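Quality-control log, excerpt.
Job 1 of 2 completed; input and output follow.
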Amino acid sequence: MPKIRVLPDILASQVAAGEVVERPASVVKELVENSIDAGAREIRVDMDQGGAALIRVSDDGCGMSREDALLSLERHATSKLRLAGDLAAIRTLGFRGEAVPSIASVSRFRMVTREADAVAGTEILVDGGKIRDVRDAGCAPGTVIEAKSLFFNMPARRKFMRAESTESAHVEHQLRLHALAAPWVRFRLRRDDREVFDLPAAAKAVERVRHLLGNEMARELIALPQTQGNGISVEGFVLPASHARKGRRHQFVFLNGRPVEDAVISRALAEGFRGAVTDGMHPAAWLWLDLEPTLVDVNVHPAKREVRFHRPLDVRDAILEAVLQGLKPPAPRMPVLLNRVEIMPSVAQRADAPLSAPVAMPVPVASGFHIPQPLLSAWQESPLVSGELQPLQPLTAQGGGAPDFRIIGMLRNRFVIMESVDGLVLFDPKAAKERIFYDGLLRQRDSGAVAQGLLVPVLLELDPRDLDLLLRERLALADAGIEVEAFGGNTVQIRTLPTCLGIENPRPFLGAMLDELLHDPVSGARFALDRLARILAKRAAAFIEPRLIEARPLLEELFTCELPYCTADGRPTLTEFGMRELERRFGLVKS
């Protein structure tokens, strides 16, 4: 008896479903792609219990005859390929003919479809891959497909489905992707008989982006000029570098109408923002690419999420050019001619003046512009103009805490330069604040006085998947002093922040904090209090503007901490260069 045998059709479909149907969002993706290919102008998606109980996709596309509807349930049956050469020129979203039979093999499946000129439609019932009934049905032109009890005949696969809210978030994210890819189509999503969104058809892609992004963020969109060349066309939008985040969830790329993920595109975006975005951060972008079908292979991933470019350097150059042109600052206006108003005799006229004498600086004044005398006097008397510098002041220890450092000045408004008994000390005020905040958060946790209410709660629009995770961990956030509530749609309301942080502008702080909290890969508990305290302290310190006048009290406060010489993640707050090392560097002593 042979060991190798052909799999039964139903089993083969279930095996194929393992690649095509990963979760309810996969079902929505495949069915919506078919609806768009069918020329639909309105697509409605209904789901119950995160899609596990019901997924229904309804469209007003071209519909199918009874014969085509039955053929669509056969594996590898498609209307989009005829010859082998067609595979190199694919313009449709679906083409393999595996999606519908794979979905039907792992669910209780129902299809109702009718062509526009047909008298009656066709209804087909399939139970776990077996056709139960085929009959005439009265219905509107188009197609309705229902998948109930997903994975009912595959308990192992059903067991690995996530929580209902998580699966719902993935479905919503998938539908938003298609809404961006096809702005001319109206998309509606209902969850457990409650409408999540209703996106009307848009004449331009930017209208759909603004609808999904929100008015506040949409005002900052930067349009990229359409860039063409070598069979490639690129256009889209980006947000300023200040909105860059750690993850790539805010990068939406569409290739010939297909949502895709590709490292070449992400690297090109990062290169276009080079110098403005730090390493590990990714700019927010919405890109629509149009390529000659022969220049890209869309048949390299079972779910068609990834593609392979035949000339990736051309794609990279086109995206880079579009981004650089979009970010190019506007041409400068004609400069105003300036007159130089001499406040004191020039240096040449005072050649006999001692080197220590202050040298007056000319005031740039626009022609015909009068400077008020109080303002002019204040400018002349400033230390930079008058030459009067503040004397160096020693920093003495109080209560045996901070070492005896003498403050010298600041380096690039970032590091404080100090003199110690043994040499030179560089002090990082931001790192010091980070350590102080971290210790303060842990102390407040023990004392119970953690949260301070915001005068105006902050509203943040999140990705559906991030929203689900954040709301499920709201109790852990509350322990750290952050009170989070759902506000409707994909918006959360943040009402409190930890008291010890003293955040003046909470919106940018919260955006950066949530980005790191949600998108940084971690090996332990993502919302553990110690990790929350580290992230909160780091993000709060990032908004501190170091000032020399604050170095003395900040140093004293730092040395009340248990470990003053480093932050919670091990970065130094102070670095000392001893005289011995300095002398060696200048060749005064032998190594």
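Job 2 of 2 completed; input and output follow.
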Amino acid sequence: MKKFKLFRWIAAILLFLLPRVSQAQGIDNLMLDAVAMYQNGQFKQAKQQLKDLAKAAPDNDAVWYYLGLTEVELGDALGAIAHLSKAAELDPGNYWYRQRLATLYGATGNHKKQLELLEAIKRDFPKKTLSTAYELVNLYIDAGRFDDALAALEEVEKGMGESEETVRTRYDLLRSMGREDEAAQALEEFSAVEPSASALSMLGDYYLEAGKDSLALERYSESLRLDPEYIPALLGKSEVYRKGNRTDEYFATMGEFMSSQVVPVSSKSMYISNALKALDPRYLGQMQSRFDTLVNLAVAAHPSDTTLLQTAGMYCYSTNRPDKAARFFKMNADLYPDSPRLEAMYEELLGMSGDWTALRRRAEEAYRRLGDGRFLEYAANAAYQQKDYQAVIDYSTIKVNNSEEPLDKASGWTVVGDMYYSMGRRNKAYGAYKKALKADPDYVPALNNYAYYLAINGGCLKKAETMAAKAVELSPNEGTYLDTYAWILHLLKKDAQAKPLYQKTMVYGGKDSAVILDHYAEVLFALGEYDLARVYWQQAREKNSSGEVPDLDERIAKREKAMSSSR
């Protein structure tokens, strides 16, 4: 702070106490100091001194210019534009002022102002045409002024000569203008003089798109003679073969692509993923063994690449071979044993494949190795599928005891409660639900399950009603929770209140559940709406193929007798 005051004090003496000549000399010296600060990265100090100088010498264009440059470094784009504009206004004949301002307009996304300024610079500084024209090409393209872009491109080529970059730009420009033949001719003429793998491959793409497969193949082949592993040409050549049903040549070319050490592994992963999306599943099925070979070649070339192994696994899973998919995911997880993500991906695939024994064994080992509670959940899920409910309780209890998170405790105790109930140990189940709600009073699955089991087993219906109502309040669009609350209302003889809840349940999945359809029919029966009750009982019958409601037919027969006798 003292340093700034010293600078201002010196400036005041120079400006107001010295003669005019000395004043000018003082400003020049302070200006040199400010420039030195700027060059040394002392941008805040430089800005303060330059602002003081701008007040003292408002007609000094250099002061405004350096003030603008300093603000660029400090991230003040608007201030920089204002002060660079002031410098250019004071000295319109200074090319660099205007050029730097144009660059700043471009950096801030104001391409309209950048284009206007560059066009003015081109007009006012004809000897600087080359550098200005080079910048104008892309601006004209972005503005859709293709004729102007071509003219600017010709100026660039007059000064720098034709290059692959300018020819490719001309090719894109002409194609944008619908002048396809001229575009291809420009590339052909350049390739005849200075052949390059990229230009020849672009020609191959052009001819392939135009349906001229023979010409496309020629250009791709020429490209590959210059660079045998040029990726776009390899892929283009393979596409010609694929389109022409030249199967052997297609797979031979793709084999080169997949086994190459030069082709980036990301390109191989992308090709496999795109093939799954783009190719006809029937074609993939017919050529499955040959596509398998391509995948295996890629994996052999990059045996420890995480993304490629994952892609290979997804390829096998998508082609209905979960056992082979598991092999790739296991390779990934084994290569990187400290990665919970890769381990989880493998275990999720084991779950999708229904290999519960392998999943349970793997999840137990992963939990011991990584200490991640998610793997206890995988183990519990596997044990549940095996109907080993005590093991589910054991896994969930370990998770609860090793977590301080209320949600972990609530979810864990809820699972324990569900398992005890499945084992017929009702009091143990209720005790677990109480522990879940103590950990998190708003944990909806515990509220719902506790309420439902309490109600259907003749427990305290009022307590069950309170919990079920809270569950629906917290999660109003879940069909199962709506059913629990509505059924408890039915048990409390509040069928008129239950009916609208069941109507809502039908919107949120109730139509797919034999239990919910049966419950709704019972409510309608209680309300005397027999015809509608019959409709929902019929739907319940259709959904009850797995015997979810074991006494359904017997109970419907009794209800039919009661409905008939009431007429």
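Post-run check on job 2. Residues 461 and 492 are 7 Å apart (CA to CA).
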